[in-house]
Each structure stands twice: as C-alpha cells, then as structure tokens.
C-alpha cells in the first residue's frame, strides 16, 4: 500500500465521526449495567440516553450499605479456663478484631497454650498488637506440637519478630500455615533475609502469606511451599501403599490359617471314619471267636426223633 492510499480523505473522516456519534450501543449497555447494580434508576438512564440536558445526572437511589461483620463474641475467660484444663474440645482460639482485649490476658492465654495438647488454630488478626504483646508466642511455637495455623494479619509486628517466629517453627516443623500480611511496620532487609532463609529451611509449611519487598523472597517462599506440598503427597502415597500391603498380608495370613484349619478338620474326619469302620470288624471278630469257643468241639449233632401218632377212627352210629 502506498502512502497516498494510507491518507484518510475528508469523506472518510466525516463518515467515521458519524459512526461514533450514532454508535450508542456501548453506552446503553453501560447504563443497563449501572441500573442492574443499583447505581442509577431507569428514568435517569433514559435521561442520559436522550441527551436533552448537558447537566450531570445524579443518582437518586439511596447509597448502598454493605453488611458489617458480626462482632466477635468469644468468651476470653472461658477460653482461658479450657486452656488451663487441657480441654480436648478447644481446637480454635479466635480473637480477631478484639482490640479491647487486655494485653495481660493475651499473655496468659499464650502461656496456657504451651501445655495444651489439642489446640490447632490461633487467630489474632486486627488486634493492634506489637512485638512485646505476643512475644510469648515464640515459646508456644517452640514447645507446642498440636498448633497448625497462626493468623497475625493487620497488626504492628516487626520483621525481627517474624524472623524469630519462623526460626522457632523449625524446632518441630509442625506449623502448616502462617498469615502475616498487612503489618503497619515495614521490614528491614536483614529481617526479610532471615525470614526467607527460615521459611526455605522448613519442610512443614504449606501456606505462607507475608509481604516482602525483595522479589527473590516471594519466589523462594513459593518454591518452598510447593516442595513441602509435594513431600506431603509422596508421604501420603507411601502410607497408603504400606496400608494396602499390610491388608494384603493380613488377608494372606487369614487365608493360610483357614486352609490349615480346613486340612486339620479333614484329617480329623478321616481318622474318625477309619476308627468307626474298624470298630465293627473287630467287634464282629471278637463275637465270632466267642461263639466258636462256647460251642463244644468234636460233637456230632443228632437229629431230633420224629414220633408218629396212630389215629383211630371211631365207628359212626349210623353204620351197620
């Protein structure tokens, strides 16, 4: 195509402008969507499409209000009581959004968690916590093996605290998930490197959400979590295979025992039948021998004498 053909003529420009002015399809669709989402009323949408007035159109609909989250109704005293008594029904401690919880009470909860054997989740999100408020949590992670998930989002915890926390998680490697995003304090480079190193060395973490300034940190954390997930899958597969092998061995043992029992029963039946078949013969032989011994030897049997009686006929009275 030459340069002359690429130049738009005046007629083409006017036609393109007319198409833009006449193409109201996108605007009408936008207005329909705004009406569906309760941003403007349909009368206001028609007013905009008519274009009779150049003044801006304000929505007459009431402002939308989003439903607020329900208040956290966790009974802190009851939670502390269950922790001290090692209650097996206590699996979750949820103090999210409870900013008015006294710090001494939080410390008592953490101290009681050390010896609790059933707790699995701890949620301290949006509580306005600082490092000194929950420093006892590091001791909990080092000693408690039942805790799996920790949520510390939206607080004022420093990078040094999280470095100690992730290093404490290396003791047992039983923590599976740690949430630590949206902290009001920026992490130093040294603290970030220590956190990344501890996460990469941990083979138990499956989910980690934390804000890093270093791009290599996000990449290494993703690699570590994928690696740990693959390790878990391999372990589950091996456990399933071992369970199947055990079941097969137990079935084989039960089958061998059943066959042995059947063979023993058959042998017993055979011996019983032999004994029963031999007993009458022996008894019969003994009886025959006894009968022969009782009979006298060299004795000729004489026939029984037969006596014939003579029958005399009486004369009848009618005979002459």
UniProtKB/TrEMBL annotation:
Biological-process GO terms, alphabetical: actin filament organization; myofibril assembly; pointed-end actin filament capping
Keyword tags: Cytoplasm, Cytoskeleton
Comp. bias intervals (Basic and acidic residues): 238-275
Molecular functions per Gene Ontology: tropomyosin binding
Region (Disordered): 47-74, 238-320
Entry protein name: Tropomodulin
InterPro entries cross-referenced by the UniProt entry: LRR_dom_sf, TMOD
Gene Ontology cellular component terms for the protein in this record: cytoskeleton; myofibril
Location of the protein in the cell: Cytoplasm, Cytoskeleton
């Amino acid at each position: 195509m030459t340069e002359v053909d690429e130049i738009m003529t005046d007629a083409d420009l006017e036609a393109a402008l007319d198409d833009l002015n006449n193409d109201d399809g996108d605007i009408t669709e936008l207005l329909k969507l705004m009406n569906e989402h309760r941003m403007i009323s349909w009368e206001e949408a028609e007013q905009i499409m008519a274009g009779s007035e150049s003044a801006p159109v304000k929505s007459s609909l009431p402002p939308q209000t989003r439903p607020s989250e329900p208040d956290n109704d966790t009974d802190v005293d009851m939670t502390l009581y269950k922790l001290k008594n090692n209650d097996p029904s206590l699996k979750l401690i949820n103090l999210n959004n409870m900013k008015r919880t006294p710090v001494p009470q939080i410390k008592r909860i953490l101290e009681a968690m050390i010896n609790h054997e059933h707790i699995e989740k701890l949620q301290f999100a949006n509580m306005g916590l600082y490092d000194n408020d929950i420093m006892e949590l590091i001791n909990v992670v080092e000693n408690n093996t039942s805790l799996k998930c920790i949520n510390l989002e939206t607080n004022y915890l420093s990078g040094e605290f999280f470095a100690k926390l992730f290093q404490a998680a290396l003791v047992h490697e039983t923590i599976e998930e740690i949430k630590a995003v949206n902290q009001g304090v920026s992490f130093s480079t040294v603290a970030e490197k220590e956190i990344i190193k501890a996460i990469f060395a941990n083979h138990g973490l499956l989910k980690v959400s934390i804000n890093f300034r270093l791009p290599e940190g996000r990449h290494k954390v993703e690699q570590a979590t994928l690696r740990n997930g693959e390790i878990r899958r391999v372990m589950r597969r091996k456990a399933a295979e071992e369970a199947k092998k055990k079941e097969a061995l137990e079935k084989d043992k039960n089958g061998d025992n059943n066959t042995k029992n059947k063979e023993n029963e058959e042998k017993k039946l055979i011996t019983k039948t032999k004994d029963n078949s031999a007993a009458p013969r022996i008894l019969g032989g003994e009886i025959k021998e006894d009968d022969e011994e009782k009979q006298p030897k060299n004795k000729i049997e004489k026939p029984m004498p037969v006596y014939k009686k003579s029958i005399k006929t009486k004369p009848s009275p009618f005979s002459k």
